[in-house]
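[job 4471] stage=fold_predict status=RUNNING
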Amino acid sequence: MEKFQNQALLIVNTASKCGFTPQFSELEHLYKTYKDQGFSVLGFPCNQFMSQEPGDELEIQSFCKLTYGVSFPMFAKVDVKGENALPLFTFLTEQAPGVLGSKAVKWNFTKFLVSKDGQVVKRYAPQTKPAEIEEDIKKLL
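[job 4471] inference complete, writing structure tokens
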């Protein structure tokens, strides 16, 4: 994560076979629009929700690039909840609990907005379209 210091980030757990998968297009638009202003989208594929990310790292990268033109950083497949959760997601969920204080990520395309100084600003539900987050991003830049 050192590479992304001093950048505002939108961190998203993704899946290629989910009803929210078309959000990749809007995420890419946000990335292209604001990347030169110190912003990045970080995608973390996850297969913990109804096995909607079955592919390996190469298949996921290829699908995202060819289908949605994704050029923002996509990481290796991770767990975002449970005993083997990536520590980043443990931190994010502790800093920005969900509805009724729930800490666990409940579904694919849960999004976390992080300020340039590493503060978790807000958590967004999977159904929140990336375009709806744009004003919050602008405030951080």
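[job 4471] summary: The chain has a mean pLDDT of 95.
[job 4471] exit 0
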